[in-house]
Design brief:
Helix content is about 35%, strand content about 15%. By secondary structure, the chain is of the alpha+beta class. The protein has three domains: about 15-95, no CATH class; about 130-205 and about 320-385, 3-Layer(bba) Sandwich (FAD/NAD(P)-binding domain); about 205-235 and about 240-310, Polyamine Oxidase, Chain A, domain 2. The strands form five sheets. It has a five-stranded antiparallel β-sheet with strand order 10-11-12-9-13. The protein binds flavin-adenine dinucleotide (FAD).
Length: about 400
């Protein structure tokens, strides 16, 4: 517990070998992109099949073999967090290679909130309205605006408080989770069947963060990551199905927030899938008790002081999100992402456009994918006006 770095990453280091084996197998899963027939439908099935092959060649004693399998199982759970899915068995093998990782080291900056704040400074004041949930986007209509000499607009956006906005174009950026639950009523007339199918087929799961604040750290000052490995687990053995009794086993571990002078003594845990959704239904006190127990077991200290505070995300219960981010599920493909991104009506003129992470074919699930998809749709509109004849009116968005 407490280690972050694999020192001396070489053939002689067994932990490095294991991490290397997992990443080699995962790299292989990205090689089926243009393969007409995949050997198995999902990334999870492929990984387990390959791990089972590897085990046959291991010469370790049984105890070491089980420990190595337990570590590989933890890596699989980590992949569930990265893909935002309950199980890698739900992530399609063929399209997995289409997700593109940008080069360079991952980095953080003070807070993601700074990014929209920065973007807002370049927009006219009051052009962004907050706390205004939309109930329905009507398109293909002819809505009259009496305040503008009776000018008509094809799109009307109605909000929960009853206020209505008329527009020439609207860009919808609600999460795929919200669309899955509400697309039949949220967009009127309803989406064409191909687009509704894409919404149903693409995956949208849950990954949550759980922050624990301690009075005193139980980890060494240079510790950056605490990974939790359950020695009785293996990717080759079906996981327990009693979510209620064992939800906390899905937690992959904790990042240590650094530096403590800024954040205090805070750990950030990650948990994905149905166990994460179940965690959302518990009280703070129940989560705190369960995770104190986990930490006491992993440190071997039954008297370790519990955290003084817990704070967690609840992305699945959040009514305007209904999960965390998208993945390409078994039975779907990158084509579904492109279909989702297609504006309406299908044969022009542009009325309803779609952006957000789930509409980016190679960067789905990321903030950069979300941002680029917004720019893509903005460019689509700019091109429309660049190439059109002179306009009587300034378009309204
Ligand atoms: C735990 C976690 C960790 C993550 N870590 C990373 C990371 O390290 N790096 C990274 O790049 N990405 C990360 N992501 C993913 C990233 O946050 C998303 O990909 C990104 O926020 C998607 O942006 P978006 O604009 O598509 O959707 P969102 O950010 O979900 O925005 C959609 C907005 O639509 C609003 N909305 C929904 N319904 C309505 C309605 N009816 N009316 C009005 N508004 C509505 C929602 O309230 C929301 O504000 C993480 C996500 C989670 C959950």
């Amino acid at each position: 517990m407490g280690a972050h770095w694999i020192h001396g990453p070489s053939k002689e280091n067994p932990v490095f070998q294991l991490a290397n084996l997992f990443s080699t197998l995962l790299d292989q899963t990205r090689e089926f992109l243009h393969v007409p027939q995949v050997p198995v439908p999902s990334v999870g099935q492929y990984m387990r099949k390959e791990i089972a092959q590897q085990v046959k060649e291991w010469t370790d004693d049984d105890e070491t073999k089980w420990l190595k399998l337990a570590i590989l199982n933890m890596y699989l759970k980590l992949e569930c967090c990265i893909s935002g899915t309950h199980s890698m068995d739900q992530v399609g093998l063929g399209p997995f290679g289409e997700y593109t990782m940008l080069p360079g080291l991952d980095c953080t900056f003070p807070g993601y909130g700074d990014l929209p704040d920065c973007m807002l400074t370049s927009l006219p004041k009051e052009s962004v309205v907050f706390h205004k949930p939309v109930t329905v986007v009507r398109w293909g209509g002819s809505y009259r605006d009496e305040s503008q000499e009776g000018r008509t607009f094809p799109v009307q956006v109605e909000c929960e408080d009853g206020e209505r906005f008329l527009a020439d174009h609207v860009i919808i950026t609600v999460p795929l989770g919200f669309l899955k639950e509400h697309h039949e009523t949220f967009i009127d007339p309803p989406l064409p069947p191909r687009k509704a199918d894409a919404i149903r087929q693409l995956g949208f799961g849950t990954n949550n963060k759980i922050f624990l604040e301690f009075e005193q750290p139980f980890w060494p000052p240079d510790c950056q990551l605490i990974e939790v490995v359950w020695e009785d687990e293996s990717p080759l053995v079906e996981a327990g199905t009693d979510v209620q009794a064992g939800w906390f086993r899905k937690l992959i571990g904790f990042l240590v927030l650094q530096p403590p002078e800024r954040y205090g003594h805070v750990l950030c845990g990650f948990i994905a899938g149905k166990e994460s959704e179940y965690m959302e239904t518990l009280s703070d006190a129940e989560v705190l008790t369960a995770l104190t127990d986990v930490i006491r077991r992993l440190t071997g200290n039954p008297h370790l002081a519990p955290p003084k505070k817990v704070l967690r995300s609840q992305w699945h219960s959040a009514p305007y999100t209904r999960g965390s981010y998208s993945y390409v599920a078994v039975g779907s493909s990158g084509d579904d992402i492109d279909v989702l991104a297609q504006p309406l009506p299908e044969d022009a003129p542009l009325q309803v456009l779609f952006a957000g992470e789930a509409t980016h074919r190679t960067f789905y699930s990321t903030t950069h994918g979300a941002l680029l998809s917004g720019w893509r749709e903005a460019d689509r509109l700019l091109n429309l006006y660049d190439t059109s004849e002179s306009h009587q009116h300034k378009p309204r968005l």
